């Protein structure tokens, strides 16, 4: 790494004709430009939601796309009182599904990944290969079989019907296994065993703390995917008191030909519903960053 | 290295306890207060149901608001297969045969047959499917009408068209006077709208004799309608962008679309999507193919149905009848949910025009007259397939700039193939 830097530094001072230099710096700006383009492409819809949420229903389709409207507060008020505040119920449901689901998923993934990485037992390869296959099967495909299975045990249309399928994430387990193999050194585990620590204690006091950055990643991935999940709750739930916010907004949008869609409320609701995700990313980001620096045995 | 037996057992026990703790509630006592679940999408329907709950302490109806239309049909089919459907559901007329042939809906003739004379015969036929059973109670209907911007019609010196020939001419005249405006649009995204136009033209897509179905999605009347719109689209006399998109909403707002062939519920949609045009619209009967025998079709409209899987069908039927025939309930449906009631007496009772049409005080008097000219229509057991084929084939024709009539053949083929695949006998 440092060798490259030194070499770089050695090269740059050699004088170049001004034209070549300007071409080089223009080329250097190219990646930045492409990245900026990408950022605009991704952020423009978000900006649109932000602007559109400030418009009243009269303004939404009649004023220019990017001009701010006058009724953000009114929209929020209307959203908050829509059907006696059912929107907050949906938000709370989403928080429950995503929060509890992602937490359990991170724990399950951590324990499973650790076991798969650190213990040699019969069938380990089989289990792991089955998990890899699970990564390849999209969750959407599983929703109907899961519905039919859960309806056999009478669990559909309950909180558990959405929570249970969300807890097992093949990708999370896969990630945790890779992470455990890389971040929990065999030496540390052996040393703990020599000191007489039980397997459970090794797991909870040594392995899991070392795996925290990886588990935070699993948590975040699961949280976002559960929060944005539509198909599973759509199939599982009939009671609108149990809906997550994605489905709630959908019912507001799909009111049929005969009644107008509640566009302003849906747009405002969409804005409010991404706020927790943004907050979560901002607060958990630092755990994510330290994973490259941490580790128990440094060379 | 190995988990000991005790820990395994503890983990298993915890899992079972979790399952058991939350799996209850499957069976319910038959006497004592019952609770009925009701899937519906009509706005504010919960407020109407509150009235029932206030006066019927023994039967509590719990509304669960769902997404409208095809989505709800799919969901009802899935939940019936899973064995836990709601007790009651709001169902559109064209979805009834699909649900009945999949055994999702209960025959409620015992409790609901007496409500027959509260509805126009054409409407009632749609919930009996022409047989002796009753599979739902009609809730609202959607006789089609022509809506236009009265102010812009005056500005451009246009006359309200009474025939389809006049409609085409008016569309051309408007284009000549204001090249950025359209009298209407052909929506390849709204099969229900097209089906309404076909009903008006006297088309008949399905009929059943004994156990044999006859399917004629490409009959002469349907071809006539497709031909007519194909010509208008080809010459650019009307727009070809789908309805119910943000662009279309914008076009309604800024006067790019100055007319809409819609149904009686249009004022509510216009209010929601084009609030700035309050009081500028007017309603007239549909343009006619034959002025000596005025007709209209139906677009939209729904019923309240009881599911076959419900264990409380008697109470549910009682509620369905109450919701759609009790004067106070229907009145609440009209004022709270903004529907156009199917019950004949309630149609006549409406004296105030919709709030969005203060300029047309006799709106509902006219509407009732138009509703009386509705043509009957028999829906088949796979309207969803026909509708999907419409969206695909028409959408393809519109974006390819080709004739619309061949799309009907595709719709016919898709419909017949699907019915045969599902074991229906389809005759020539």
Molecular structure report:
The complex is a heterodimer of chains A (299) and B (428). Chain A is mainly α and 299 residues long. Chain A has one domain: MetI-like (MetI-like fold, Orthogonal Bundle). In chain A, 75% of the residues lie in helices and 0% in strands. Chain A contains 14 helices and no strands. Chain A has helices at residues 2-11, 18-52, 57-60, 72-81, 86-118, 124-136, 139-152, 159-167, 170-183, 186-194, 199-228, 231-236, 245-253, 263-289. In chain A, helix 9 crosses helix 11. The radius of gyration of chain A is 25 Å and the shape is flat. Chain B has helices spanning 5-22, 45-55, 70-82, 96-101, 109-112, 121-128, 150-155, 164-177, 191-200, 220-234, 246-253, 266-273, 313-325, 327-337, 344-349, 363-371, 383-400, 405-421, and strands at residues 34-40, 59-65, 88-92, 137-149, 206-209, 212-215, 259-263, 281-284, 298-306, 425-427. In chain B, 46% of the residues lie in helices and 14% in strands. Chain B starts with a helix and ends with a strand. With 428 residues, chain B is α/β, with parallel strands linked by helices. Chain B contains 18 helices and ten strands. The chains are: A mainly alpha (299), B alpha/beta (428).
């Amino acid at each position: 790494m440092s060798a490259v830097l030194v070499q770089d530094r050695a090269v740059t001072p050699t004088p170049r004709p001004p034209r070549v230099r300007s071409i080089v710096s223009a080329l250097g700006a190219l990646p930045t430009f492409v990245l900026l383009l990408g950022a605009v492409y991704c952020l423009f819809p978000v900006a649109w939601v932000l602007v559109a949420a400030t418009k009243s229903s009269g303004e939404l389709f009649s004023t220019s796309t990017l001009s701010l409207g006058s009724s953000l507060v009114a929209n929020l008020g209307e959203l908050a009182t829509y059907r006696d505040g059912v929107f907050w119920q949906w938000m709370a449901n989403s928080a429950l599904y995503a929060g509890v689901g992602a937490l359990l998923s991170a724990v399950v993934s951590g324990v499973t990944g650790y076991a798969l990485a650190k213990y040699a037992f019969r069938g380990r390869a089989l289990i792991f290969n089955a998990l890899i296959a699970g990564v390849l099967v999209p969750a959407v495909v599983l929703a109907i079989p899961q519905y039919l299975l859960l309806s056999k045990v009478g669990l559909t249309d309950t909180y558990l019907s959405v929570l249970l399928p969300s807890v097992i994430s093949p990708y999370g387990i896969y990630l945790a296994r890779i992470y455990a193999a890389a971040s929990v050194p065999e030496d540390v585990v052996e040393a703990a065993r020599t000191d007489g620590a039980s397997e459970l204690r090794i797991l909870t006091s040594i392995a899991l703390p070392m795996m925290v950055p990886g588990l935070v990643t699993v948590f975040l991935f699961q949280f976002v995917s559960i929060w944005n999940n539509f198909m599973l709750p759509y199939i599982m739930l009939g009671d609108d008191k149990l809906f997550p916010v994605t489905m709630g907004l959908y019912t507001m949008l799909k009111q049929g030909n005969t009644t107008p869609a509640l566009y302003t409320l849906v747009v405002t609701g969409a804005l409010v519903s991404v706020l927790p995700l943004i907050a979560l990313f901002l607060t958990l980001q630092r755990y994510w960053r330290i994973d490259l620096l941490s580790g128990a045995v440094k060379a | 290295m190995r988990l000991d037996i005790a820990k395994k057992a503890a983990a298993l026990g915890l899992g079972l306890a979790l399952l058991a703790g939350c799996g209850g509630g499957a069976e319910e006592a038959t006497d004592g207060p019952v609770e009925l679940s009701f899937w519906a999408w009509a706005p504010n329907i919960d407020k109407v149901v509150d009235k029932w709950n206030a006066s019927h302490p023994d039967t509590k109806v719990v509304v669960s608001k769902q997404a409208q239309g095809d989505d709800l049909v799919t969901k009802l089919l899935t939940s019936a297969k899973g064995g836990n459907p709601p007790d009651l559901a709001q169902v559109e007329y064209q979805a009834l045969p699909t649900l009945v042939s999949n055994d999702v809906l209960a025959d409620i003739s015992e409790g609901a047959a007496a409500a027959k004379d509260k509805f126009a015969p054409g409407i009632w036929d749609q919930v009996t499917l022409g047989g002796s059973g009753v599979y739902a109670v009609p809730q609202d209907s959607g006789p089609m009408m022509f809506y236009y911007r009265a102010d812009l019609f005056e500005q451009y010196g246009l006359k309200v068209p009474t025939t389809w020939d006049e409609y085409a001419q008016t569309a051309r005249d408007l284009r000549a006077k204001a090249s950025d405006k359209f009298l209407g649009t052909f929506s390849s995204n709204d099969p229900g709208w097209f089906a309404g136009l076909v009903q008006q033209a006297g088309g008949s897509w399905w009929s059943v004799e004994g156990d044999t179905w006859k399917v004629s999605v490409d009959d002469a009347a349907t071809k006539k309608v497709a031909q007519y719109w194909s010509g208008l689209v080809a010459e650019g006399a009307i727009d070809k962008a789908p309805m119910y998109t943000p662009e279309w909403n914008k076009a309604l707002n800024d006067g790019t679309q100055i007319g809409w062939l819609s149904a009686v519920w249009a004022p509510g949609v216009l209010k929601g999507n084009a609030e700035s045009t309050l009081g500028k619209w007017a309603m007239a009967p549909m343009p006619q193919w034959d002025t000596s025998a005025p007709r209209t079709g139906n677009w939209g409209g729904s019923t309240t149905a009881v599911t076959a899987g419900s264990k409380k069908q008697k109470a549910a039927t009682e509620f369905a009848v109450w919701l759609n025939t009790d004067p106070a309930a229907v009145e609440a449906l009209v004022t709270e949910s903004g529907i156009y009631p199917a019950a004949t007496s309630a149609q006549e009772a409406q004296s105030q025009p919709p709030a969005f049409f203060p300029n047309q005080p006799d709106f509902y008097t006219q509407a009732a007259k138009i509703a009386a000219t509705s043509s009957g229509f028999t829906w088949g057991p796979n309207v969803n397939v026909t509708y999907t084929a419409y969206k695909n084939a028409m959408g393809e024709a519109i974006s390819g700039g080709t004739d619309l009539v061949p799309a009907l053949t595709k719709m016919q083929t898709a419909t017949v193939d699907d019915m045969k695949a599902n074991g229906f006998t389809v005759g020539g």
